[in-house]
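re: ur question from yesterday

yeah so i grabbed the chain u mentioned. its 135 aa long if i counted rite. heres the sequnce exactly as i have it in my notes:
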Amino acid sequence: MIPKSHPRYESLVKREKIIEGFKRGIVAHAGLIAHGRGEAFDYLIGERTEDFALVAEKAAVAKMLLANNPVISVNGNVTALAVDEIITLSKILNAKIEVNLFYRTEERIRKIVEEFRLHGAEILGEKPDAKIPNL
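ran it thru and got these structure tokens back, copy pasting raw so excuse formatting
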């Protein structure tokens, strides 16, 4: 148990969620590395969100609100860290949720889909019916 008084409490809780997601087969090996790289960068910039990132966040939300058919793509890390938050966001934006993996295995797809369904969400991408050429 990480004490809430620890100066990096939130970061360490996220790390534990990623590790648990990996153990459950949701997060890929590369997802552990990507998260660690992100943690290192966050540490270097002082664990704060830069102004340009807040502007980009607002622009992304505006695009989603204006979209005719918004879709939120999730991977293993997102699922391990923020399944409930993604479901809430999808309801606010009236957006679909899809699983979209770079390190794709049928088992990981199934586990991510199951996680979202366990939390009460519909999720696309379990049985894709098309493929984008050259990807």
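noticed a couple things. The radius of gyration is 16 Å. also The domain at 9-118 is CATH 3.40.50.12640 (Rossmann fold).
anyway ttyl
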